Amino acid sequence: MKATTAIGIGLAFAMLTVATLMEGSTPMSFINLPAMLIVIGGTTGAVLASVTMDQAKRMPALAKVAMSSAPVDAADRIPQMVTLAEKARREGLLALENDVEELDDEFVKKGFQLVVDGADSEIVAGVLRSDIDGTAERHGRNSAAFQTAGGFAPTLGILGTVMSLVHVLENLSNPGSLGHSIAGAFLATLYGVGSANLILLPIANKLKALSAAELNEREMLLEAVLSVQAGENPRMLAERLRTFVPPAERADASAKRPEAVPGDAEAVAEAA
Fold first, then answer.
1. pLDDT (tens digit, 9 = 90+) per residue, 139-174?
2. Per residue in 196-221, pLDDT tens?
3. Closest-CA residue to 65 (of 208, 207, 197)
4. Which among 85, 165, 190, 229 is most buried, taking Cβ atoms within 10 Å?
5. How far is residue 24 from each of residues 12, 17, 28, measured CA to CA in Å?
6. How many Å apart are CA 164 and CA 183, to the nearest integer?
7. Domain residue limits at 24
8. How far is CA 42 from the centre of its chain?
9. What is the 3-state composition of the chain as percent helix, strand, coil, each rounded to the nearest 5?
10. How many angstroms separate the CA atoms of 34 and 39, rounded?
């Protein structure tokens, strides 16, 4: 399911709302605009001071990605790679030229294009490895922005509480308002801790999970490209690629294995 992050965050807030109602309070009693300004404004400012403007601008789009995207399934790529390996063994690497143009993934397309162009395996591996490293670094910066925000928010919440308590202590001459003022003071801490643990850190963790899945798939595709270039047996390639799939999902990956391509005598013999 793609929207697990949004569902999880929504469920957490729903449970908090139910608990509030069970205690005889109302959600409106937790609204405090000055505390919101301190936590939201302060956290935003601290994040802007910690990351580049481009990173900050990407945060809303990244939050949307975390809310609506599911990790890539490396198993879905295995049949395609095996099919290309079978064709390469049967007709040669140059026969993949038309297939390369139809690939929808720029990473694997780049790799097979280098192979078709006759690049050395070390060059192919170096180019694709640089792509993987660059992707990992970029993804790391993206999740770190939310991790940073999740670290600042509770601290700003405490700062807001301290500021409000100072104001309370300045008005001890009005005992009747102390209870309401102290309760309002602690709302800043609530906002800070709540936003960090229910929104910012979950988004950061989801982005890390999405990144890990994508990098694992790219490692698998790198292995596939180099194996096809080396002329490895397609069946052996399929077994090698399935090691990149979690054990519980390998049965499904095996079920997706394509039938032997007509004319591939070796594949037909092995299947028999």
1. 999 999 999 999 999 999 999 999 888 888 877 777
2. 999 999 999 999 999 999 999 999 99
3. 207
4. 85
5. 19, 11, 12
6. 10
7. 1-272
8. 26
9. 85, 0, 15
10. 9
